[in-house]
Amino acid sequence: MNAPLNHPLPLLDLDVLRTFVAIAETGSFTTAANAVFRTPSAVSMQIKKLEDILGRSVFARDARSVSLTTDGEMLLGYARRLLSINREVVSKFIIPEIVGVVRLGSPDDYGERVLPHVLKRFAQSHPSIAVDVTIDQSSNLRRRMDDRALDITLLTNSYKTSALGAEVLLTEPIVWAGAKGGCAHLREPLPVSLWEEGCAWRAGALDALGREGRNYRIAYMSAHTAGQRAAIMSDLAVAPLPKSFLGNDMVELSPKDGMPDIGTYNLAMVVAPDASAPVKAVADHIRATFEVFRETGKF
Q1: pLDDT of 169-179, one tens digit each?
Q2: Quick one: which H or E segment has residue 271?
Q3: From CA 293, how far away is CA 244, in angstroms rounded?
Q4: What CA–CA distance (Å, rounded) separates 181 from 234?
Q5: Which of 288, 285, 279, 289 is nearest to 152 (CA)?
Q6: Burial 193-226 (b: 16+ CB within 10 A, else e)
Q7: What is the mean pLDDT of the chain?
Q8: At the topology level of CATH, where does 98-298 sit?
Q9: Domain coordinates in residue numbering, the chain
Q10: What contacts 88, CB < 8 A, 6 or more positions away?
């Protein structure tokens, strides 16, 4: 048998664990500090305290990056479970039980890139609310809202237009994306990959090409983000994308590369005027998600 401990084991601070998880997920002390609303120095002190308690290093640091040690990877799983249990317990006492189904619409691009993170976190805090998602073009989603087939929808609007009753969540530049080391932007006529009619990014891109008098041909057409990325990565074409959508294997093409400025677009949210408590809870969660993104650049 093991000898009994003479001293009780220390308790881990959930606030410190929250900071630890934020650093692990963002790979940056500075970005994590913004996410948990602390200064970078305060975050560093929290991690030092955690490492002192455990007697192990949880992060390997160098001048450019932060990564988990083997002990840190083990701790991450426990930390996530502890934080999840804490949310569940606190919500039972503080957050009134809200039950219902929310019908949420989203364009493909944000449905692929953002909604998985949003809905995962929402399910943790509101397990009794089911969210049914419809992915479609913004013009079709707006019609579904008008027909009361959706409770909430996200919409992409061009820099020239704004949907009636829409709340702008994000305004972002649209840029020309090309493959890193590619040459599609040098070809004549310019091969372009575009969404279907009604896409805000398409309208801005074609307006920009028209203003510059640049000859182009539509070499690739898809209503899905994955299709656009395939066209870019194969160097078949260039495509208009929000700046935050650029991956490490893409480059932004500027006027120096012979590509005209496109401008900006808005991501907006429309909520049914007679929104129920579950609908309001989803809308508030989406707002909070984009507030964090505007501050940190991370979803």
Answers
A1: 888 899 999 99
A2: strand 263-271
A3: 10
A4: 11
A5: 279
A6: bbbeeebbbbbbbbbbbeeeeeebeebbebbebe
A7: 87
A8: D-Maltodextrin-Binding Protein; domain 2 (3.40.190)
A9: 14-94, 98-298
A10: 124, 127
Architecture label for domain 14-94: Orthogonal Bundle (1.10)
Q: Is the pLDDT of residue 210 over 80?
A: yes
| The pair of three-digit structure tokens given for residue 105, joined into one six-digit string | 């619409």
Confidence of residue 2 (pLDDT cuts 50, 70, 90): very low
Whether 141 contacts 107, CB under 8 Å? yes
Per-residue pLDDT of 90-123, as tens digits, reads 777 776 677 899 999 999 888 888 898 889 888 8
Give the separation between CA 293 and CA 35, rounded to whole angstroms: 9
Encoded tokens for 26: 């963002």
- The one-character DSSP state at 255 is G
Does residue 55 sit in helix, strand or coil? coil
Radius of gyration of the chain (CA): 23
One-character DSSP codes across 155-191? EEEETT---TTPEEEEEEEEEEEEETT--GGGSSSEE
